[in-house]
Amino acid sequence: MNRSLRFASAFAILLILVLLVNLTWVQAFREDQYANNPLNQRGFYEMKSIPRGQIATGGMVLASSSQDGDGFYQRSYPSDDPAAFVPVTGYLSDQYGASGLEASYNQVLNGTDPGLFTSRWMDTLTGKETAGANLELTLDPQMQQVAHQQLTGNGYEGAVVALRPSTGAVLALASSPGYDPNALVDPATASQAWEQVTQAPGNPLINHATQDTLPAGSIFKIITTAAGLTNGYSADSQLTGAPEITLPGTTTTLTNYGGQACAGGGEVSLETAFALSCNTAFVQMAVDVGTDAFRSTAEAFGVGENHDLGLPTSPGGLGDVADDAALGQSAIGQRDVTMSALQAAIMAATVANDGRRMEPYVVDKITGADLRELRTADPKEVTQAVSPEVAAQLEELMLASERNTAGGRAGIASKTGTAEHGDEGTPPHTWYVAYLPDSDVAVAVVVKNGGGMGTGATGGRVASPVGRAVLDAAGGA
């Protein structure tokens, strides 16, 4: 071989090596920059060319895809009331992206999740059309729709969460105000719908059940009581029933609701204080128990934690409990204490489950296009928040609380809350947490800003009827 041919051959081999190195670099290290770049429409069209998996629950299809005249698949939400389920399903829009499970489980639904490799490989070998996997949810359709209707039908802004205490399965997760996802995914209506939903009052795009953290008010007395019971108190322990109490180290007084004495004043039992939600008694008990016990109990119940539901969540928390005065205010769910409806439901469910806190989850199964099960949720116990004995005592106190709540029913263990915020003229947020001891269902309700009932609104008047309606809908859940 002459010199010119050797040079040309060597140059060609060098070019091939450069090409291979560049190809490897692009494929292995620059995929996000090129293949997944939003300006690269190839990925978008590939995704639209594959039938996306369904989202369903209890035999009801909540999200599905159908092929249009151009051969592309379009998303739709075919249930009778898609707005009821959108806090969980979210939406998938060509123009505005994705939210909810549509976003967090995108790779599962479009079939590109690494865990689906074997399924995709088998489809390729057998010549089947590539398709996304399906999500089967834990939601109870009846409970979800009742929760949504109770909020929207009354014009309430707020949230409802129902859980199965023994597993952590989410049975209902409703948020109001909401929106119809079909309007956002239809190209003919998407722009107008987006403008309306982003300008609507109450932030409909926010998941009020998981993202909205609010002052907890008196439902937080469940945690304060748990700390007391764990540290030597009992239902018969005597506490102050005075109409007001001076916060330690200050001249500031904290009063009972309406400035009233608790059961005539004097000393009252913890059972009476819990049933009548006497603020002064809980300030006294919390200060006696101490900040460390109070904080550790709150953390054991999950206060301040995020939860991996595949939905956006906010942790809430206790804030800075710097001294006994701050502790006294925090003990009644005020000062810097905040919770979401999800966290409030976890708190109630933990008591119902003999003190065991379970991790909440909303996706029960992932199935292939042929409905073969690919993954199934495995309930996870997070911690033993309180002993079974303390949980049993809390249940008795919550049963007594329900008996002292307007419209109270035998067999429900509950606690109401009325949380102040803003200035004196701002209506309170109203809360209700409850569970059915014999039915493995727990619920939390928050109705913001008094639900239209003004500054006199209470958890018993506003939130508790919503919670009881959702419990009534539990049926075979």
UniProtKB/TrEMBL annotation:
Gene Ontology biological process:
cell wall organization
**Domain Penicillin binding protein A dimerisation positions:** 52-134
Pfam families with a match to the protein in the record:
PBP_dimer_2, Transpeptidase
Which Gene3D superfamilies does the entry mention? DD-peptidase/beta-lactamase superfamily, Penicillin-binding protein 2a (Domain 2)
Region of interest: Disordered: 405-426
MF term (GO), any: peptidoglycan L,D-transpeptidase activity
Q: Which domain of life is it from?
A: Bacteria
Gene Ontology annotations for the cellular component aspect, listed alphabetically: plasma membrane
Which residue range or ranges hold the Penicillin-binding protein transpeptidase domain? 158-471
Q: What is this protein called?
A: Cell elongation-specific peptidoglycan D,D-transpeptidase
Species of origin: Corynebacterium pollutisoli
